[in-house]
Amino acid sequence: MSNTPHLSRRHILQLGTTGVLAAAAAGLSSATAQGTPRPRVRETDLGPGVVQFGSKSAYQFDDTIYIGSRNLEPMYILAYHIPSATVTGRTSVADGRSTQAMAADPTGRYLYFGTENAAGGVPTLYRWDLKNPAAPAEALGRAGDVRIWALDVAPDGVVYFGGREPGGNLWQFDPSTREVTALGIAEPTATGARAIVATATTVYFGAGNTLGGGQASKAVLSAYDRSTGRFTSILPAELAEDDTVRELRIHGDRLIVGTANATGSHIAVIDTTDPTSYRVVRHEGITSKAMLAHDNDLYFLAGAGQARVCSLTTMAVDPVVIDDLDVGEVWGMAYAEERLHAVSAYGFVAHIDLPGRTATRTDLIAAGAPSEPQLAMNVTAGGGYAFVSGNGAVARHSLRTGEVVNLVAPGETKDATWADRRLWMGQYSGLGLWSYDPARQADPAQAAPLPSKFNRPECVTWDDDNKRVLVVALADASGGSCLGAYDPARDGMTVYEHPLGPGQSIPAIVAYRGLAYLGGGDGGSGPVGEIAALDPMTGRVLWRVDPDHNAPVTGMAVRGRHLYVVLNNGGFRVVDLARRTIVHRADITAQAAKRSNLVVARDRVYGVSAKALYRFDPRTFEVFVLADGLDGAWYGGQPHVSADERGMLYTLRDRNLIRVEDSRRG
Fold first, then answer.
1. ω before 166 within 30° of 0 (cis)?
2. Per-residue pLDDT tens for 2-37?
3. CATH number of 12-49+373-661: 2.60.120.260, 2.130.10.10, 1.10.760.10, 2.30.40.10?
4. CATH of domain 55-288
5. % of the chain exceeding 70 in pLDDT
6. Kind and range of the H or E run holding 423
7. 280 burial class (0-12, 13-18, 19+ CB within 10 angstroms)?
């Protein structure tokens, strides 16, 4: 099924097999039809968490778009044939994770691509033989510990690439020698190469500050002379304060430059024969990416769902507005058959008739893409549902019927909470706080923005005493966090910037009896993982405690007078809130692995890691494992656990949503 006008953006999935399992780690047995007492720990498999073919790259060669998957295992590259609107081929890499970087050699024989998985010594550079597409992708080697973000092939077939690493090398693969070589660093304080494009004589290299904090460089644009091996900065002065060069394209004798910046980005068009000759336009979007130059127009994405066109003649920027079309996050565009084709992170390709201002959509799974679950961002339960978020989607699981509906959610829902009959969601990147009322909304919508530089929401909680939604968000480029307090009754957001001090990140927050307890990260002048109490109505910090673990907080919960705190790398602390002192310290690495998260259900505190679901004894704080061997497939490695109104617990086993009932007392 393809080219169907105005396809619904919501996909209903049928729930697979469910069952009741005993928690093996607890040594318990399942109930039987003969009346055996119900097990004290009861686990039910609710099926795949979130299923959608998410993408992270798209590259056109002739009449085919090559689409790289995101958060699927294995990582896929699809060959999507535009005229037939079908997937005509695919290859996969077991250890790929995802790819943002791909390009074909000039002959069209090979598609080169780099992966974002730099761990464990696995190869990171591959090529797919397009003349023999049934053959597996060929591993070409590894480039240090780089997560490859950008790649291009020069006219003579030499491959240039780079990615996330300190400084950001320009790397080369020469197919004649089959050697991978680091060619040098244009700017040592950059946090990685973001954009690369190569000609017969020059490699243009874009970099800057991505996840680097306040000490990293701003935008970098250099021309690497292939004959001399020298870098020369050609960055227009107007781009100097942008966070990073985000994308580069060659169009005739022009170099087109797109930047990313939280307060507005730029498009620059530079004469390749004289880089001092250029034109620049600024627009309000936070990025300029997924660029496609056709004739004298440049199509690009300025932010989630914000398609734009820039005239290369006048440099005027205008929105691309099509009725009933929300493209969400777009990682690549193509032009064929007199139409613009945008590959959406929502799992479809939009076919846009620009003169007619109409569009049709082809669902990638319906076109032949694999139907497999993504890595999950978080799990939140409430209102008769369990919500599992991935990239560009939140899967709503009905706990009554088992029906699963994919809700459209731009970007990534980094964390969420259920309160006041709604789901409250922190949306990355730079989208602020969103909400969803199942009784009144078809899909989530923005409730309130946060300051644009605080682009990465990390934790959302409900303050029941003050009736506020509290959200903490990190500024990737400049460092430090903010606290937002949203009042649903008045539809107003109050923001406190850097409540723990300049540069200090805040990855965790929990509210109790009118106060907000903040779990610190790093980057500031205070201790790493600092714990603080704050009045969310004034932003005033009342007291602070150093956990003496030198690692960020990953989860917190309050029971009675005790604040439970888990820290990265297995640290566990209990703070007596009345005495404002730490009364218990432990290493729970055996249960918590690297990261944990906490929740309170039925007056008990539970924790989850990628490895295990566990419970704390309220008197001794001893840890009891309820379900082991979870192997939770969490994006970024941050696990989540949630409890519904009945006290049932929800988390992941591998990529499946599970419900766990703990009926033990004490």
1. no
2. 343 333 333 334 333 333 333 333 333 333 333 444
3. 2.130.10.10
4. 2.120.10.30
5. 94
6. strand 422-428
7. middle
